[in-house]
Amino acid sequence: MGSIEFFIVALNLIIVFVAYLSVYPKLAGNSFNRISFYDIFASGLALIIVGSTYWDTGQEFNLIVGQVNWFWFTLITYGLIEIPVMVWYFKKNKVKIKIKTEQKH
Predict the structure, then answer these.
(1) How far apart (Å, rounded) are the C-alpha atoms in residues 27 and 29?
(2) Within a 13 Å sphere around the CA of 78, how many CA atoms are in the beta-carbon half?
(3) What is the pLDDT of residue 53?
(4) Dihedrals phi, psi of 38, to nearest 5 degrees
(5) 78: which of 6, 35, 47, 96 is 20 to 30 A away, CA to CA?
(6) Burial 19-45 (b: 16+ CB within 10 A, else e)
(7) How many C-beta atoms lie closer than 10 Å to residue 100's C-beta?
């Protein structure tokens, strides 16, 4: 992994850990809907920061299984970092995922 990929992974780590250790406990608690809402901004922040540097450059990033552009590298590595942290947070805070189904009468 080159220094560019390392920077993006480090950025994703920082954003995920700040979100789950500081922001989400204060603003979202154990509400799945609030966590999801704030996570759009957290992941979007990573995409904006990386995109502001690599948009339209044609730069390719090594994702082990192949070369991808900045968007997919950032999004996939963000997801891979976030999933175990999210599972830990959900268990620790007893977050319940409620799926509302439409009832017909």
Answers:
(1) 6
(2) 24
(3) 92
(4) -70, -30
(5) 96
(6) bbeebbeeebeebeeebeebbeebbee
(7) 5
Contact status, residue 47 vs residue 73, Cβ threshold 8 Å = no
* Side chain identity, residue 103: Q
Tokens of 64: 């082990």
Ramachandran assignment for 58, one of left (phi > 0), alpha (psi -120 to 50 degrees), beta (any other): left
How high is the mean pLDDT in each 10-residue block of the chain (105 residues)?
Answer: 87 97 93 93 97 91 90 96 96 83 68
pLDDT for residue 1 = 56
Distance between CA atoms of residues 83 and 26, nearest Å: 20
pLDDT (0 to 100) of residue 74: 96
Q: What is the CA radius of gyration of the chain?
A: 16
At residue 2, the pLDDT reads 67
H-assigned helices in 1-105: 3-18, 24-27, 32-54, 70-92
Q: Are the beta carbons of 47 and 74 closer than 8 angstroms?
A: yes
Cβ count near 88 (within 10 Å): 11
